Amino acid sequence: MPQSRRMLVLRAVVEDYIRSQEPVGSGALTKQHDLGVSSATVRNDMAALEDEGYLIQPHTSAGRVPTEKGYRYFVDRLATVVPLSKAQRRGIDSFLSGSASLQDTLQRAARLLSQITGQVAVVASPSLARATLRHVELVPVAMSTLLAVVITDTGRVAQHTLAVTTMPPTGALNDLTDAINAGCSGASLLAAAQMVRALARDARFRDLAPLAEELAEAFTSMSDDERASELYMSGASRLAHQRTMADLAPLFDALEEQVVLMKLMSALSEQSARADGADGVGVAIGSETHTPGLLHAAVVSGGYGHAESESSALEPVRNESGEPVAFVGSIGPTHMDYAATIAAVRAVARYLTAFLGGDDPADGSAHDPSRPAPSASSGRSDDADGDPAA
To answer: Which residues pair with 327 in a beta bridge?
Structure first.
């Protein structure tokens, strides 16, 4: 029996189960798919797939449903993604183009992605650790307090208070600020911290050395802060229509653990970016998430950012490790429509990439879904069975 035909049967079972969420029988498969064999042969193939761990039979008289292994095989071999409809593409333009700020854009992006997929959407703001410095202002706010206003290349604005024993003269403070902006613009926060420490040793700023040291420490703290990325989430209420009450409690617990979600989805987007380039989208299914509350869920995540080079306007900004600056993703049941979800995540990521890069996101390039699907890398170890279709 050809293995390739057996895998065609598996693909058909997954597609039908995603559509109907009902166990799939051999008779239904032969009616709805041109498999070129009898119902009895398909039934034998499904039994073999069950023995190999790709399908399970909930009840003796019922059809079969995919296992986590079956979904993984299906996702890894997606050849194309489902194009977004014209209405969905117009929706991205109209819904996001009216944003007043980066934060507003990210909030809107989460709501829009949730509406498109019918699942939980998560969008992370660009991490300060991966941003570069655009501008710094030192603003007196009290007799012994300065406010450092830090603007990054991704549009994020961070603030940090600095204590001083005596307020420096306005001219000296302006000179230090000018020197910092001249020397640190375009540098990472860690690199900027080193440059500011060097300025603290400069004879011109001897009287401001304590202030410069404190600002350097602030830059380092911003860079090291794991919570420097904010998460914007939408669609959690939709889970109540897709999950049983027994599944909801651990799933909501998982959604509350934002640091865990951030690490998981960030790792997925980084792995997929390294494997598949700017359009890489990662998928983790069930136990691959290593998160108890997500054992019956799947996570789709892709990176976004903006390019510094004019020749690649939609390629994410990458830090020294080659990682995108932030991620956008979707969380839903294991029987989610993977092709449509991947397309939606990638479309919103492209929009955010163009938005941060200063390009016109509405020119169509930011959400062209016609390209082949990524390999949907998950960071899991390869299955010992290898490729059953080989």
So the answer is: 303
pTM of the entire structure? 0.78
Residue 390 pLDDT greater than 60, yes or no? no
**Which whole-number Å values give the CA distances from 223 to 141, 159, 188, 192, in the listed order?**
24, 13, 8, 10
Residue type, 360: D
What are the structural domains, with CATH classification, of the chain? 3-66 (1.10.10.10), 86-127+229-367 (3.30.450.40), 130-226 (3.30.390.60)
Give the integer Cα–Cα distance in Å for 197 and 168. Answer: 18
Rounded-to-10 torsion of CA 286, 291, 292, 294: -40
Joined tokens for residue 220: 């380092």
Average confidence (pLDDT) over 362-380? 44
Check: CB of residue 230 under 8 Å from CB of residue 125. yes
Beta strands in 33-72 (DSSP E): 55-56, 65-66
Instruction: State the chain's maximal CA–CA distance in angstroms.
Output: 89
Structure tokens at 169: 């003269």
pLDDT tens for each residue of 133-171: 999 999 999 999 999 999 988 778 889 999 999 899 999
Give the model confidence (pLDDT) of 15-60 as tens digits: 999 999 899 999 999 999 988 889 999 999 999 999 999 999 988 7
Q: Strand locations in 264-321, DSSP E?
A: 281-285, 297-304
Kindly write down the DSSP assignment for every residue of 74-106, as one continuous string.
HHHT--B-PPPPHHHHHHHHHHHHT--SHHHHH
The helices-and-strands tally (H runs, E runs) of the chain is: 12, 10
Backbone angle region of 375, left / alpha / beta, with phi > 0 → left and psi within -120 to 50 → alpha = alpha
Neighbouring C-beta atoms of residue 72, cutoff 10 Å: 23
In percent, how much of the chain has pLDDT > 70?
81
What span, in angstroms and rounded, lies between the C-alpha atoms of 196 and 54? 58
pLDDT of 177 reads: 96
Q: What CA–CA distances, in Å, run from 125 to 19, 118, 191, 276, 387?
A: 33, 22, 21, 22, 38
Which of 83, 39, 46, 88 has its CA nearest to residue 64? Answer: 46
Written as six digits, the tokens of 61 are 């008289």
Structure tokens at 79: 């050849």
